[in-house]
Predict the 3D structure of the following.
Amino acid sequence: MNSFRVGLIGTGRISDVYLRNCAVFDGLEIVACGSLNMDESRAKAAEFDVPCAKEPAAIIADPEIDAILNLTIPAAHADISVAALEAGKHVYSEKPFVTDLANGRRVLELARDKGLTVGNAPDTFLGGRWQTVRKLLDKGVIGAPTGVAAFVPTHGVERHHPNPDFYYAKGGGPLLDLGPYYLTAMVFLLGPIREVAAMGKKTFAERMIENGPRNGEMMPVEEDTHSLNLIAFENGVLGEMMVSFDVWESETPRFEIYGEDGTICIPDPDPGDGANIFQGPVWYRTRAEARWTERPRPDAPAEWCVAENTHGFNYDARGVGLLEMADAVANGRSPRASGALAYHVTEAMEAMLTSAREARFVDVASTCARPELLPETFPKDR
Ligand SMILES: NC(=O)c1ccc[n+]([C@@H]2O[C@H](COP(=O)([O-])OP(=O)(O)OC[C@H]3O[C@@H](n4cnc5c(N)ncnc54)[C@H](O)[C@@H]3O)[C@@H](O)[C@H]2O)c1
């Protein structure tokens, strides 16, 4: 694969892991970085050996750059993506894809008209953990799937993020922040969503920043911080998802798929630990077994011996979606962590917000292809 030359815009907190990973991915090269805070960008460039730091507009205009990696705050995602596409560059963004659907359509239409590719986080479903779940499902270990459930209780981010305002401002909240991980995984495993229903609650009017230079400062809360959602999939499976910034402690962090013959469980899908979302145990239990089976199990029946995490990416591998997108561009195909998938998940979340606000079931009009498993031939990790 020829090197895919990437310009990074947004050098805040999440950029470190991208810079670290992209430095060792074969076929990707971050050649410039910039943000609204150029001192921060220069420091990141020095720390991670990025050849140059320059203003975002100069990165977007640089003819030597193939793609923009958009790690700005959610409210800026659409503008940066549109500017990148207008300048003839592919774009890969952090989640959420956009904060309103009209902008999402604009991004996808512009990419289509210009023959460019749009990719989007989360790429966690390309991690060994979710790939293993998909293999178990495809092998029929739990029979036909009937239900799915994700419980993700947290107490928000103000204890560890120095600038947590955007998590509580319009466009934030646990649904738009945490929802993309679990909904994207659900669509990867079960296919597109047809209809949703939801309830939401804003528990506190204000919250206190509890770390860093702004310790003690209060922030307004504009979005619901406790979100309960029901999900009907096109294939008839029914799901539920609880995501919260209001729970101090719980034994429920879980992602489970129920099938006619058993259950698959990810016991700790913890969003606070980036690595956990890519790697870790997958359990399954079938009607034939009295106990949970954790993969890998040396004495598992041969037909259940799904190779465990053979693709790698069993660490906080953020950026693997961009690596896979570079391969997709080189081979003239759609990426797995695609803009169309991100749009569909965004529409489902918008529908959940509408449902909670208006107390009614809401259809999800868009659809998308269920991403394929990563092939065994996909470049391995570090
Ligand atoms: N922090 C995390 O743990 C985490 C995890 C997963 C995903 N994300 C997502 O990553 C994105 C960035 O999060 P973060 O925590 O790094 O935020 P951050 O506030 O630490 O950094 C944001 C960066 O974007 C830049 N920026 C903002 N608006 C801009 C604009 N208009 N033009 C150019 N640059 C602009 C800022 O200068 C800064 O460099 C968000 O969408 C977030 O949801 C964050």
